[in-house]
Each structure stands twice: as C-alpha cells, then as structure tokens.
Write a structure and sequence with these properties.
The chain is α+β, with helices and mostly antiparallel strands. It has five helices and five strands.
Amino acid sequence: MMKMLIKLDEERVLRDGKYDLADMWREIDELFENGCVKEEQSDGSVLYSGKVDKDYFTCISVAYIRLSNREWFARYCSKWIWYDNDDDEGLPFQDINLLEKERKRNPLFAI
C-alpha cells in the first residue's frame, strides 16, 4: 500500500495573494482522484491513500513527478511524505520525506 501526505502553507498562500488556494488544492486532488482516497487531517494536511482496486502506484508516482516540477507547489509545500510498505500489510510503512529530498536535489524547492 502507498500513501502520500501533503500540507501547504495556506496562511502564506493567502498572504502572498499570488495563487488561489482552492485552485492549488483542486489541482493536487485531481492528480490523486483516479487511484486514491482523500482524507483531510486535523493539522490541515491531506492524506491520499491508495485504493486497493485501483492502480494507485501509477497515480502516486505521477503525482510525485508532476508536483516536483510545479513552482507554486515548491514554494508553498510545508510537508510532503510518501508512505510505502511494499504492498506487505505485515510491514510498517516507510516514510520518505519528499520535501527534504527535493530541497536537496531540486532547485525549485531551494529555500
């Protein structure tokens, strides 16, 4: 099973006024709509969990590739974690901090 957790710095988005927050979330949601279930978290983040009967691997992988190339996402992402247990429900999830990874390798995410 795979999951992806995303949080945007919504206060900063609103303060800067450069992008429409609802449009940002709409674009993110569309990336996951064919293979994942959306779960809003109490801290404002969103967890996208793979649907067992769908090709969630491709869905989450494509979302990762597309989001890693979006300037607006790089600017306002405050949490981005990929959870994976290699489809073995007996294993705990590995959590891969994508935001940290992208800040090291991707100039769009440089602080």
